[in-house]
User: Which sequence fits this backbone?
C-alpha cells in the first residue's frame, strides 16, 4: 500500500514539475555604447522585477534573456531576430530609444511577438502596428502637460523652444509642446535649432536673451540642456527653464551645477511620492538590494514592463501564446505599476499621469502630479 | 547685429579658436617629423581632460597641480604610443602606420568607455575661472579669457624651443629629412619621442581648457575636436606651428560667426572645418603659411 | 597550356555553383537568425572587397565607406518608397515635390545608389588626388561626417533624424549573395587586369609608376570611384534589409569594422577580404559573450559592456605590429595552389 502511495505521489510530483515550463522573454537594451547609462538603469528595473516575481500563477517560470544592442540599429535588428528565432521568446521588452524600439517592433510585429517599450515616447511608434505597446506616456501628452502647466499654473505666455534636430525625441516633444501651447493661447517667439554633440551655445543664449521670452522650453537630453543652462547664467539670462524627461537624471544635476537651480521638468514618477503600494514596496526592495535611496524613473518603468507582461501572461491559459499575451496587455486597465497606475488601450498606448519636478538645492524635488 | 554683439562673438571665436590651436600644434609637429596623421591625438586631449578631472575630483589636488598631472600624464602617454606602436613601424608602408594610429585612437576611446562609462562627468571648475568679467558691455568668463592668453604664451615657448635650442634645430632638421639627421649623429627616435611629448602636453592643456569652458568630460569628446584641429593644421599650413595656431583661430572664428550671424545654417557648424580643408586643398594645398615639403615624397 | 586555363575556369565555375547552391539551401533550410547573419556577411563582403580595392590594392588610405554606404542607402530608400509612404512619414518638414516623385524598382534603385556614390567620389578625387594622397583619409573621414550633417539638416529630402522607415524588404540571400558574387568577380577581374597591375604599381612605388608612364591620378580615381559604386550598392542592399535607416546608422565604427576586416584578411587580397568578413561579422556575434559576465572556472569577471570594441581595436593594433600581412597577404586563393602544382 505504501509503495503504491509513494509511486502515486512521485508520479504526481513529476507530472507537476514537467508541466511547469520555462518561458523566455527577451530584453533588448543598450548596455554599452553612447546610451549605456540609460540602458543599464532601465534594465535594473527589469532585473529586480524578475527576481521579485519569477513565476506565473500556473507555476511556469519566466526567464529574461538580455541582449545588448549597443544603441545601434543593425545590432538591434540582429538581436531581435536572434531572440525571436533562436531563443523563441514570447515577448520582448525594450529597446530604450524610440528609433531602436521602432526597429524591434518592425521585426517583432511581422512575427506576432508583442513588444513592451519602457521609455520610448514617440507618438508614431504604435501606429499601424498590432504588437507594439508601451508603459510610458507619449510625447503628445508630455508636451500638453508642460504647455498647460506653464500657461495655467505659472501664467507664462511666451516661449522660446530649442530643438535638437538630431534627436527624434526632441523633434517629437517640441512639436507636441508647440501645438498645445499655441492652442492654449501662448506664443512661440523663437524656434532655435541645435545638434546634439554641440557644447558651445553662446550664440544661442544671446539670441534668446534678445528675444526676451517668459520662459524657455528645452525638449533635450541632459548633455545639451545642462550646457545651455550654464551658458545662460553666464550671460545673465535668467528665465524659467523647462524640459521633458530627457533631463530626469542625476547626471543633469551634476553637469549643470548651480545653474540648474529652479529648473523644472516632467517625469514619469518620483520615488519620494510613490503612487501605489506596489511602488512603495518595490522602492524599499530596490534600496535594500542596491543601497541607493533614490530610484530613477527609468528603473521604475523598466520594472513595469516586466510586471505588466507577467500580469497579462497570468490571464492567458497558455502564457507562451504571444497573440493572447498581446491581447491581454492591451486590455490591462487600472494596472498598479511601480511608476503609477497604467491604463492600456487597444493601440498599445498607456494612459497615465506625469509628475512635474523642480531642482532645489541640487536635488530634484517633487512639485505636482498631472493626471490625464 | 550691432557692434557690441559682433565684438562679443569675436571674443567667443578667439576663445574657441585657441583651443583648436593648442591641439593643432601637436598634429602639425608630428606630421612634420613623421608625415603621420596621428589620429590618436584628439584622444590624448581627452585623456588629459580626464586626468585633470581625476586630479581635482578624486585626488583633491589644487587646479594647477591637476593641470601638471594631466600634462605629464598625457606627455608620457604620447611618448608611450610612439615607442610601442609607431616606432616598430618606422620602415613600414605608411598605410600601416595610419591604420595603427586609428587602432590606438579607437582603443583609447573604448578603454575609457569600459573603465569609466560613457556618462559625461562634470568637470570641477575652480570658482575664479567661472566668474564673469564685464568689460565695456562684453561679458566673458575668466576661463574664456585665459585660454587665448595661455595659448599665445605656449606658442611663444614652442617657437623659442624650435628656433633657439639645439633640440629645436634637430626637430626642424628631422622635418626636412630623416636620413640625413641620423647621419649627423642625432638619434632621430629620441627627437621624435620629444615631439610626441611636447604635442601631447599641449593637447592636455587644450583638453583641460575645453573641460573648463564646457564642463563635461566623456570618452568620445576628443573625436570631433581632433578632426577639426587637424583641418586647422592643414589650413594654416601643415608642418608650421604658427600656421597651426592661425588655422585654429580661423576654424574657431568661422564656427562662431556662422552660428551667430547665420543661425539657419547653425546645423552645418561642424562641417565648416572640412569645407575649409577641401577649399585649401583645391586652391592652396600648402596652406596659409605653406611649407613646401619635398613634393616627390607624396 | 590549354589544360591549365581550363582548370582555372572549372575551379571558378565550381566555386560559383557551390555558392549558389549554398544560397538556395540556406534560404530554405536555415532559421531566420542565421539567414540574417548570412545576409550581413554578403553585404559586408561587397563592401570589403571594394574597400580593399582602394586601400589594399592601390595603397591609398581612405576612410570612405560609411559615407558612400549612407548615400547608397538613402538613394535606394528614397527610390523604393512611393509618394504616399513618404507623405505619411515625413514629419519634420514637407518633402520636396521631386522627392515625392522619386520611385524606381529595386535594380534601378541599386544602380542609381551606386552611380550617385561614384559621381560624388569623382568630385572628391579632384582636390585630393591631385595634391597629396595623404589627406585622403582625413577628407573621407570628414566626408562621412558631412553626410550625416547633411542628412540631419535637410529634412525635406531625408526626413532628418527621423530617418526613412518601412522600406520594402527586398533584400534576401538571393539578392545579397548574388550581388556579392558579381562584386567579387568584378573586383577580381579588375585586379587581374592591366588596371589592377597599375594600381599595385602605384601602391608599391608611386614614383616608379609615374616614371613608367602610369597616370596615377586616373588610376587612383578609377579605384576610388569603383569602390564608391559598390559601396553605394551595398548601402542600398542594407537599407532594404534593415527596412529603416537614419543618419546615426553610418558612423565611423562602420568604417572601422571594414578596416579590421580587410587588414585581418590581408590588405590587397580579395580572398582575404572575404575571409575577413566571415571572421569578423560571424565572429562578432560569437564574441557577444565578451560583453557578458564570464565564468572562467577560477575567476568570475563581471559584465563589461564595450569590451568587444576594445578587443577589436587591440586585434587591429596587433595585426599591424606583428602580422601585417594578415591572413592572405597580398595573394589570392589560387596563389596558394600555384606553389604545389605545375605553373
Assistant:
Amino acid at each position: 500500500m505504501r509503495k503504491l502511495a509513494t509511486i502515486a505521489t512521485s508520479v504526481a510530483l513529476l507530472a507537476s514539475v514537467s508541466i511547469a515550463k520555462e518561458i523566455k522573454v527577451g530584453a533588448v537594451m543598450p548596455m554599452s555604447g553612447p546610451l549605456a547609462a540609460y540602458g543599464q538603469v532601465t534594465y535594473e528595473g527589469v532585473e529586480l522585477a524578475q527576481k521579485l516575481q519569477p513565476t506565473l500563477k500556473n507555476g511556469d517560470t519566466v526567464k529574461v534573456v538580455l541582449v545588448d544592442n549597443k544603441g545601434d540599429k543593425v545590432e538591434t535588428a540582429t538581436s531581435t531576430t536572434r531572440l525571436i528565432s533562436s531563443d523563441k521568446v514570447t515577448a520582448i521588452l525594450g529597446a530604450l530609444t524610440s528609433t531602436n524600439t521602432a526597429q524591434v517592433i518592425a521585426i517583432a510585429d511581422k512575427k506576432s511577438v508583442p513588444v513592451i517599450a519602457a521609455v520610448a515616447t514617440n507618438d508614431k511608434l504604435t501606429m499601424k502596428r498590432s504588437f507594439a505597446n508601451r508603459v510610458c506616456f507619449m510625447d503628445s501628452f508630455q508636451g500638453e502637460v508642460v504647455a498647460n502647466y506653464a500657461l495655467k499654473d505659472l501664467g507664462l505666455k511666451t516661449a522660446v523652444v530649442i530643438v535638437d534636430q538630431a534627436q527624434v525625441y526632441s523633434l517629437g516633444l517640441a512639436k507636441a509642446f508647440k501645438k498645445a501651447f499655441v492652442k492654449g493661447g501662448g506664443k512661440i517667439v523663437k524656434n532655435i535649432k541645435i545638434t546634439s554633440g554641440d557644447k558651445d551655445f553662446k550664440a544661442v543664449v544671446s539670441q534668446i536673451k534678445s528675444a526676451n521670452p517668459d520662459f524657455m522650453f528645452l525638449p533635450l537630453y541632459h548633455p545639451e540642456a545642462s550646457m545651455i543652462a550654464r551658458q545662460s547664467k553666464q550671460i545673465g539670462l535668467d528665465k524659467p527653464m523647462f524640459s521633458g524627461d530627457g533631463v530626469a537624471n542625476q547626471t543633469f544635476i551634476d553637469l549643470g551645477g548651480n545653474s540648474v537651480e529652479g529648473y523644472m521638468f516632467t517625469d514619469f514618477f518620483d520615488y519620494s511620492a510613490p503612487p501605489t503600494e506596489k511602488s512603495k514596496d518595490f522602492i524599499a526592495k530596490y534600496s535594500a538590494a542596491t543601497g541607493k535611496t533614490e530610484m530613477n524613473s527609468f528603473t521604475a518603468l523598466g520594472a513595469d514592463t516586466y510586471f505588466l507582461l507577467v500580469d497579462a501572461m497570468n490571464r492567458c491559459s497558455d502564457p507562451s501564446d504571444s497573440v493572447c499575451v498581446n491581447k491581454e496587455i492591451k486590455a490591462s486597465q487600472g494596472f498598479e505599476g511601480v511608476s503609477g497606475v497604467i491604463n492600456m488601450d487597444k493601440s498599445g498606448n498607456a494612459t497615465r499621469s506625469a509628475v512635474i519636478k523642480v531642482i532645489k538645492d541640487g536635488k530634484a524635488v517633487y512639485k505636482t502630479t498631472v493626471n490625464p | 547685429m550691432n557692434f557690441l554683439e559682433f565684438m562679443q562673438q569675436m571674443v567667443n571665436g578667439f576663445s574657441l579658436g585657441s583651443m583648436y590651436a593648442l591641439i593643432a600644434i601637436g598634429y602639425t609637429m608630428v606630421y612634420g617629423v613623421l608625415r603621420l596623421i596621428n589620429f590618436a591625438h584628439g584622444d590624448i586631449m581627452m585623456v588629459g581632460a580626464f586626468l585633470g578631472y581625476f586630479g581635482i575630483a578624486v585626488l583633491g589636488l589644487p587646479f594647477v597641480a591637476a593641470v601638471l598631472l594631466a600634462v605629464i600624464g598625457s606627455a608620457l602617454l604620447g611618448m608611450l604610443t610612439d615607442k610601442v606602436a609607431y616606432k616598430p613601424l618606422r620602415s613600414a608602408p605608411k598605410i600601416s602606420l595610419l591604420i595603427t594610429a586609428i587602432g590606438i585612437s579607437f582603443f583609447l576611446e573604448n578603454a575609457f568607455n569600459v573603465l569609466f562609462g560613457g556618462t559625461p562627468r562634470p568637470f570641477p571648475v575652480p570658482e575664479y575661472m567661472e566668474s564673469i568679467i564685464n568689460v565695456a558691455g562684453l561679458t566673458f568668463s575668466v576661463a574664456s579669457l585665459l585660454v587665448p592668453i595661455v595659448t599665445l604664451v605656449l606658442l611663444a615657448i614652442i617657437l623659442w624651443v624650435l628656433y633657439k635650442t639645439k633640440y629645436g634645430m634637430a626637430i626642424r632638421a628631422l622635418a626636412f629629412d630623416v636620413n640625413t639627421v641620423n647621419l649627423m649623429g642625432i638619434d632621430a627616435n629620441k627627437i621624435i619621442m620629444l615631439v610626441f611629448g611636447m604635442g601631447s602636453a599641449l593637447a592636455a592643456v587644450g583638453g583641460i581648457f575645453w573641460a573648463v569652458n564646457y564642463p563635461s568630460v566623456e570618452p568620445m569628446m576628443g573625436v570631433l575636436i581632433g578632426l577639426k584641429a587637424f583641418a586647422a593644421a592643414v589650413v594654416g599650413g601643415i608642418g608650421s606651428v604658427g600656421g597651426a595656431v592661425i588655422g585654429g583661430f580661423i576654424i574657431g572664428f568661422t564656427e562662431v560667426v556662422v552660428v551667430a550671424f547665420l543661425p539657419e545654417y547653425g546645423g552645418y557648424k561642424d562641417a565648416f572645418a572640412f569645407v575649409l580643408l577641401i577649399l585649401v586643398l583645391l586652391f592652396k594645398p600648402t596652406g596659409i603659411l605653406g611649407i613646401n615639403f619635398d613634393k616627390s615624397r607624396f | 597550356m590549354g589544360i591549365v586555363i581550363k582548370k582555372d575556369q572549372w575551379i571558378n565555375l565550381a566555386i560559383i555553383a557551390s555558392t549558389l547552391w549554398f544560397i538556395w539551401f540556406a534560404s530554405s533550410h536555415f532559421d531566420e537568425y542565421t539567414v540574417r547573419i548570412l545576409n550581413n556577411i554578403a553585404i559586408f563582403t561587397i563592401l570589403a572587397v571594394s574597400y580593399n580595392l582602394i586601400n589594399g590594392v592601390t595603397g591609398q588610405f581612405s576612410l570612405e565607406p560609411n559615407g558612400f554606404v549612407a548615400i547608397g542607402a538613402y538613394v535606394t530608400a528614397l527610390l523604393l518608397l512611393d509618394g504616399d509612404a513618404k507623405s505619411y512619414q515625413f514629419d519634420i518638414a514637407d518633402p520636396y515635390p521631386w522627392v515625392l516623385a522619386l520611385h524606381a524598382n529595386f535594380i534601378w534603385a541599386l544602380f542609381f545608389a551606386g552611380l550617385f556614390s561614384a559621381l560624388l567620389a569623382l568630385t572628391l578625387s579632384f582636390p585630393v588626388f591631385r595634391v597629396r594622397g595623404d589627406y585622403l583619409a582625413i577628407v573621407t573621414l570628414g566626408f562621412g561626417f558631412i553626410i550625416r550633417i547633411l542628412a540631419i539638416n535637410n529634412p525635406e529630402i531625408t526626413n532628418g533624424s527621423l530617418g526613412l522607415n518601412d522600406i520594402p524588404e527586398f533584400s534576401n540571400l538571393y539578392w545579397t549573395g548574388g550581388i556579392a558574387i558579381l562584386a567579387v568577380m568584378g573586383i577580381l577581374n579588375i585586379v587581374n587586369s592591366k588596371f589592377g597591375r597599375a594600381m599595385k604599381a602605384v601602391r608599391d612605388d608611386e614614383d616608379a609608376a609615374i616614371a613608367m608612364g602610369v597616370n596615377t591620378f586616373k588610376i587612383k580615381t578609377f579605384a576610388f570611384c569603383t569602390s564608391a559604386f559598390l559601396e553605394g550598392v551595398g548601402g542600398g542592399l542594407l537599407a532594404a534589409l534593415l527596412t529603416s535607416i537614419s543618419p546615426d546608422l553610418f558612423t565611423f565604427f562602420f568604417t572601422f569594422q571594414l578596416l579590421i576586416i580587410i587588414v585581418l584578411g590581408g590588405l590587397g587580397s580579395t580572398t582575404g577580404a572575404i575571409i575577413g568578413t566571415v571572421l569578423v561579422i560571424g565572429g562578432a556575434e560569437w564574441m557577444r559573450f565578451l560583453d557578458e559576465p564570464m565564468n572562467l572556472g577560477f575567476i568570475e569577471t563581471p559584465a563589461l559592456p564595450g569590451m568587444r570594441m576594445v578587443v577589436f581595436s587591440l586585434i587591429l593594433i596587433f595585426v599591424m605590429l606583428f602580422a601585417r600581412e594578415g591572413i592572405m597577404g597580398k595573394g589570392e586563393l589560387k596563389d596558394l595552389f600555384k606553389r604545389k602544382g605545375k605553373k
Remarks:
- Chain B is about 70% helix and 5% strand.
- Chain B touches chain A through 30 residues (CB under 8 Å).
